[in-house]
Amino acid sequence: MTDMKKFTLTLSLAVAALFAVPSTTFAQEQPAGERPQRPPGARRMDPEARLKFMTEKLGLTADQQAKIKAIYEKNAPKFKELRDKGWDKLTDADKKAMRDLMKAQSEEINAVLTPEQQAKMKELRPPQGRRGDKPAEPKPAAN
Question: What is the tens place of the pLDDT at every residue in 26-43?
Fold first, then answer.
């Protein structure tokens, strides 16, 4: 083999190895029952950012913006109280209250949207389940 062919082969193998190693490190499984962690620097959208996003994506009117902002402001203290406890310290009742509050807020916002905006919003939402993952498997019935 010529020196050029050896160099090309070596370079190709090195590049392939560089792409293979990082992909295996990211493929680690999340332990069962543990909440997925956000990447460093990533954070949940605050109500103002969500409203801006919805305005851009759904074409909200000024009236719709005012109504949705009021919904966020009404629910903010309840969400803050639950978030301030810390996810690990929430009781099952707290987690249910959080889910119920999120569902009620979503329904209130949905009532402000037109049918076309509702359809577009459904497209923008991630699939149901744990943060876009596959839905949780049903628990086997106890005997």
Answer: 444 545 444 445 444 445
Tell me, yes or no, whether 85 lies in a domain. Answer: yes
For the chain, what is the domain count? Answer: 1
Per-residue tokens: 84 = 């301030």
Burial of 101 (0-12, 13-18, 19+ CB in 10 A): middle
DSSP states along 95-131: HHHHHHHHHHHHHHHHHHS-HHHHHHHHHHSPPTTTT
Q: Rounded to an integer, what distance in angstroms lies between the CA atom of residue 90 and that of residue 84?
A: 10
Q: Among 81-90, 108-117, 127-136, where is mean pLDDT lowest? A: 127-136
Domain span holding position 64: 45-123
Residue 78 CA to residue 58 CA, distance in Å, equals 26
Is residue 72 assigned to a domain? yes
Per-residue pLDDT for 118 more than 70?
Answer: yes
Give the pLDDT score at 13: 64
